[in-house]
Amino acid sequence: MLTGRRPFGRGGLSVGPVGYGVAALGNLYQALPDDVWPRCVPAAWDAGVRYFDVAPHYGLGLAEERLGQALAGRPRDELIVSSKVGRLLVPNEDYAGERDPGMFDVPATLRRVRDYSRDGVLRSLENTLRRTGLDRIDVLFVHDPDDHEREALDGAFPALEELRSQDVIRSYGAGMNQSAMLARFVRETDLDIVMVAGRYTLLDQSALDDLLPLAAERGVSVAAAGVFNSGLLATPRPGPVARYDYAQASAALVERAHRIADIAERHGATLPVLAAQFPLAHPAVATVVLGADSPEQIVSNAALVSEPLDPLVWAELADAGLLRADAPTADSVTERMG
């Protein structure tokens, strides 16, 4: 059972074990009905979630607008909001009624322009504050700079350092679907939080090779996102057409997930419980960020980390070659969290 709060960055923030990634509020893959999306953030709040992650990219700003509406009136000092920089939203002058091509079911009245410059960071933050209606954003991540590493190092990170030194934001970092570049950013900048998606999960522990040891050494907090690997680990028994990293999962990955599920069931657990709790055993990981597109799913996700687990499940997974032997497991995390 994982409860309590952990330090989140070096700016005095702390988080619970679960954060809510609100991409679905931007109509990810499909539009959320008007009687559903307004209930999502209240459901997370009632379940004890106080960390909310968003980005301009999500629904061309729609997720930021909806998150701001949902948080209006909540005690600001009790919650943490992170957003991202690197994709500016500008008017789509050629708009002719088409939908957004970027996985979000929204009108393409705006378009994304990559901009990792100092000016781009400042403009992005200004626009995020306007869309959310919040008085501040606590954490800013450089978003997916895979093909823009030099621009991020020369422009975005110095700008974020300036914003943190002026107490405009509390912490900054980067959010990516890879660990190698995040590790370089940990070495080369003074960031204090990173969000790594999909690279520290039951099916992919590659962040152990670079990012996680370095983050622990440098006192950098890690938010683990994509812990269900796009859905393959989100149900007790994945179907044959489950998704993995935004694409259809291979038969080999589906079979591996079923082998993990077999062991989980022998210990009275489920695949989603293991997937949510596994990353939290690493000393650098402060929280797992879980997406959801319904109030019911949010409540279910928030409860995953509260499920008691037989610590022998991790040893059996390692013995079966389904978990790296050097991966920290939950028999030590309870001692850290108290």
- Widest beta sheet: strand line-up: 3-4-5-8-9-10-11-14
As a whole number of angstroms, the C-alpha radius of gyration is 19 Å
CATH fourth-tier homologous superfamily: NADP-dependent oxidoreductase domain
The residue fraction in helices comes out at 25-40%
Number of domains: 1
* Main sheet specs: 8 strands, parallel, barrel
SS-derived structural category: alpha/beta
Number of strands: 14
Order of helices and strands: EEEHEHEEEHEHEHEHEEEHHEHHH
Give the overall form: globular
Strand content: 15-25%
Treating each run of at least 4 consecutive H or I residues as one helix, how many helices? 11
Q: Average pLDDT value?
A: 95
Classify the fold: give the CATH topology: TIM Barrel
Q: What is the highest CATH level, the class? A: Alpha Beta
Unreliable stretches covering 5 or more consecutive residues: 332-338
Oligomeric assembly:
single chain
Determine the N-to-C terminus distance.
Answer: 11 Å
**CATH-defined architecture:** Alpha-Beta Barrel
Description:
The protein is of the alpha/beta class and 338 residues long. The chain has a single domain (6-85, 116-337), classed as TIM Barrel. Helices cover 34% and strands 18% of the residues. The protein is built from eleven helices and 14 strands. The strands form four sheets. It has an eight-stranded parallel barrel, surrounded by five helices. Strands 1-2 form a two-stranded antiparallel sheet. The N and C termini lie close together (11 Å).
